[in-house]
């Protein structure tokens, strides 16, 4: 069964409310009547038929065969993002070091100087950091800066390739447009990074979501539909996905939703195949830093989750309301909020059914920083992490959110675990 652009979008609208109400049931909510008009599509579109879907969802049954998309040779959305980020790609500049992208920042700023953060992957035993210099280029000249600092992000001791952020400083009057790292003379530089200069948005987005890189020809459009429908209804404004290896069907699905107004960005993530297994989860920590850098000053909060992880507010009707209350009640400067996880077991899901239909979960609610997810103010972070922020800008702290306020439902296989049916 093939879906046109309109029917694929219509189906996403249908499941948005159904899945959100299902989550509310799992988290102990009643169903207030105003939820029947929840979802950003209603605010964006006056079409009465779409409003009718939300008011009378029983008229539009959810189809079992959720997404079967026509194959396309090329994704329009991916091509668009490649044009926007055509200078951002993994390139080995010299043995032991790959560079990806560069972002201007005001953090670590000295008087009359600005900084650029360079996202990199490196072999820690092959690099001699003391030999590395920053090189800048503007429209008139090229020059070296000797002062370089860096942060490394190791997730596992067995990694032989780890993410780095190098910080290069320049005088505010120099106004460089490109930057690179090099050993020796800058005449030998073969790859320059275009600097993404910070642009403050007049109106920040409320919440953006970033996920780890997709790999192994990712093709689970059913899970993606659940993920996007839920978070759209929960108030998320934009989504960023990292494409190491996704299928044509998934790219087509992204295209359809993007054309209908959903804010989706795909970042090409071309880590060399020979190196991909040497870095944790296809460079997940590097993608986290990239997500935080590019969303700084664009969005108030960034939520870092995988596509099988759903942050469920238990006492609020949306994540926007939850974060608004957490922010207003805090007396400290909170740069990140840590949410605990609970595993929901896919063994209880019937064939061709949505994973969110299961209410079987493991009794254990995991401790923060062990199995947890984080909601971040991106401009307050120096070192991002998978389960928590590793380092904040001076003066900013992390806060642990009680699971009674919000809990991450992680839908996964857990055949050897004792699990119980959720009743509240």
From TrEMBL:
- GO terms for cellular component: cytoplasm; membrane
Q: Which Pfam families match?
A: Glyco_transf_92
Keyword set, alphabetical order: Glycosyltransferase, Membrane, Transferase, Transmembrane, Transmembrane helix
In its keyword annotation, does this UniProt entry include Ribonucleoprotein?
no
Q: Its membrane topology, per UniProt?
A: Single-pass membrane protein
Carries keyword Glycosyltransferase? Answer: yes
Name the EC number(s): 2.4.1.-
Q: Name one GO molecular function term.
A: glycosyltransferase activity
Main EC class the enzyme belongs to: transferase
User: Span of the secretion signal?
Assistant: none
From which domain of life does this come? Eukaryota
- Known InterPro entries for this protein? Glyco_transf_92
Question: Which PANTHER family does the record match to this protein?
Answer: GLYCOSYLTRANSFERASE FAMILY 92 PROTEIN (PTHR21461)
**Protein's UniProt name:** Glycosyltransferase family 92 protein
Instruction: List the source organism.
Output: Stegodyphus mimosarum
């Amino acid at each position: 069964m093939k879906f046109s652009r309109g029917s694929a979008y219509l189906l996403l609208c249908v499941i948005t409310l159904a899945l959100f109400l299902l989550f509310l049931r799992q988290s102990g909510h009643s169903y207030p009547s105003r939820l029947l008009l929840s979802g950003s599509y209603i605010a964006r579109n006056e079409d009465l038929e779409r409003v009718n879907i939300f008011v009378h969802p029983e008229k539009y049954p959810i189809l079992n065969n959720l997404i079967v998309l026509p194959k396309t040779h090329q994704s329009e959305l991916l091509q668009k993002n490649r044009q926007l980020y055509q200078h951002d790609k993994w390139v080995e500049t010299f043995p032991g070091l790959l560079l990806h992208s560069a972002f201007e920042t005001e953090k670590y700023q000295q008087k009359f100087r600005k900084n650029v953060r360079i996202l990199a992957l490196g072999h820690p035993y092959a690099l001699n950091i003391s030999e590395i210099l920053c090189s800048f280029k503007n429209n008139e000249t090229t020059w070296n800066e000797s002062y370089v600092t860096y942060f490394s992000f190791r997730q596992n001791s067995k990694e032989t390739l780890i993410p780095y952020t190098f910080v290069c400083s320049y005088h505010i009057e120099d106004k460089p447009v490109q930057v690179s790292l090099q050993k020796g003379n800058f005449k030998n530089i073969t790859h320059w990074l275009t600097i993404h200069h910070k642009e403050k948005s007049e109106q920040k987005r409320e919440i953006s979501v970033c996920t780890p890189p997709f790999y192994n020809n990712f093709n689970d459009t059913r899970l993606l539909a659940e993920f996007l429908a839920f978070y759209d209804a929960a108030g998320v404004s934009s989504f960023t996905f990292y494409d190491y290896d996704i299928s044509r069907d998934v790219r087509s699905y992204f295209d359809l939703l993007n054309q209908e107004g959903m804010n989706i960005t795909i970042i090409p993530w071309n880590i060399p195949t020979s190196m991909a297994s040497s870095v944790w989860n296809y460079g997940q920590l590097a993608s986290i830093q990239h997500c935080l850098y590019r969303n700084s000053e664009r969005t108030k909060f960034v939520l870092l989750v995988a596509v099988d992880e759903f942050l469920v507010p238990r006492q609020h009707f949306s994540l926007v309301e939850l974060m608004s209350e957490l922010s207003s009640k805090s007396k400290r400067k909170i740069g990140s909020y840590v949410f605990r996880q609970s595993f929901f077991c896919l063994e209880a899901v019937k064939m061709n059914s949505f994973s969110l239909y299961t209410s079987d979960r493991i009794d254990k609610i995991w401790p923060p920083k062990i199995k947890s997810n984080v909601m971040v103010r991106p401009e307050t972070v120096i070192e991002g992490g998978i389960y928590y922020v590793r380092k904040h800008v001076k003066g900013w702290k992390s806060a642990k959110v009680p699971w009674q306020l919000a809990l991450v439902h992680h839908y996964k296989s857990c055949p050897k675990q004792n699990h119980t049916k959720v009743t509240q």
